[in-house]
Amino acid sequence: YFVTGVLARVLQKVTGIDELFVAARYAQTVWMFLAWWGLFFVLKRIGVPRLVRASIATAIVLTPLALGSFATINPDAAQIGVTCALVIATFEWIDRPARSNIALIALCAFVGLLIDRSNIMGVGLVALFLCIEGLRNSRRSCIVLGAVLGLASLAWVGGSTIVHEVAISRSTQVLDMPTEAEVAAQHVAPEIQKAPPTAQQLWTNFT
What we know:
Blueprint (H helix, E strand, L loop, with lengths): L1 H14 L4 H26 L4 H12 L2 H8 L3 H21 L3 H17 L4 H18 L2 H37 L3 H14 L3 H10 L1
């Protein structure tokens, strides 16, 4: 939501759209384009002709499930776009193993996990692909990068899950504390018992 909000504000400045909500809806097309480009790029890698891969990528992006994510403001659309960017960065590194491409892989993976911890599935598949690619072509660097990416992602998700559970348990303890009204009722209750039956009935109805 934060990244979509930033994109929406930029879009407001450029286009003059008044409503932030409307601008955010239009900003979803950024994630949609990244998803389309990621699919197009992967299909190109496996030798699919240009017209065919463009048609396949368009058909997948326009499926009701995917289009529903892109048509509303939700983390799923950003998650799809960032994961596709991660796939593109991974293939770029395989072709040109530069440090800048490694930094881009790390950035895409980190942003994807920040959006939603369930994105560990997408990052994990990319890490597995790197390991398999390294074993298949005897590239030690691929295996190392895949292992580091997978282990770092697991550590991040595990650590954030623990922090989340601790925060939830603490908030539950806070919610279990008596409210000011409950504390006041505890002090008033003994006095009500001494009151006439009519007053006791009124207090019962009130509480």
